[in-house]
Amino acid sequence: KLGLDSQTPLCILSQTTQETSQFRHFVSEIKKFFPRVEVQNTICNATEERQNELKKLVEEVDMLIILGGKHSGNTRRLYEIGSERLSQTIWVEAPSELDKYKDSIRKAKKIGVSAGASTPQWIIDAVQEKVGKIIIHEKNFLLGSLYDFLRCIIRLSLLVGLAAGFSGLFWSSFFNSPYPLRLFFMTVLYVFSMYFGHRLKEIEYKDPSRFKMYRQHEGLFWSLLFFLLIVGTLTGFLVSPLSGIVYGVLALVGMLYIFPQQSFFLKRLHVIPGSKDFAVALAWAFLAVVFPAKSGVPETFLLVVPIAFAFMATAVFFRMLLLDLLDFQSDRIMGRDTLITMVSQKKYRKLLHLIWFVNLVCLVFLVPLIREWTLLLLLLNAGLLGTRILVDVRPTINRYLFETLLDGLFVVPALIGLLL
To answer: CA-CA distances (angstroms) from residue 252 to 53, 161, 257, 312, 352?
Structure first.
């Protein structure tokens, strides 16, 4: 049919997303008629590995979800491989499309998810989350409601606010100084409000799946944020006039950072990579360490305060940089104020190790002064190192699950300290 002599030399190339077995079969058939064939296997290694993994996955599940664009050749190949081997194979582009497959998802005992090479990790996470939600709600309504509640708390950054509040509780217990509920509430409100504001500002590119909902209620969300800041400032005045003034200044600076165009100085500061993470770390440490300390720390503890401040600031800074690394690995869009966008991953990891080491040095200086509290701070330091290792071992771990784990490291020492 080609009108070529059998001795005509040929060269065979392949589309990078071609299914490997089909390509090999095609080559073997061509060689029967044209022995002088040169084969250039141009199939992408990542594509081939993904296809091989999918073939193994199909044998272990009774339902398969292929995730990716309808016009993606790579995703189409994955769907063809899956559907040839498993009838319960579906192809979706977004989590919302899973609603019409709810019955099949609920009946499946084991579900596999595979995605095209160009599918961002945040979409994969959203699909896995959607599947989990469908299954949990089917098995137990109360458990499903609790799942929704906890997810809402994490997404709204309430958990990170509680982590800051418990950090203050820990240091007040250590300093043996009073820590009224008003001070705890003020700390929680500030950190929560700042994180909530930054998430609202970044939701369009950090969490696109919820951007539509945000646009519908944008005014309500920002009104809630300003209300919380006002309540926090008033709570600060209930603690003391100085606390109210300091809180108000911190809140004003924080809001100007969220809207840097309103301040020439902060507009220039805003574009410095890592400045946001560093500023939040300083504010968190100030509220968690300095405020409890000013309530009446003995003179013998005065040396402890700056070291404790440095320990807390480096721990929080490490937390934030680690979350940025996870976002980067999950193909999320990063702002230009994010440090990881300016340096290589190798240098960024070295910086994380340096910050962790500084945190450890602060702990070493605190050991002679804190005695029985050493193990609790060591728990936090070791936990930070553990989460750093986890990011390398499980680079695609769910972001909100990982953030919960990180924030728990700040809460647990405080709870143990209360029991002691």
So the answer is: 52, 18, 9, 23, 30
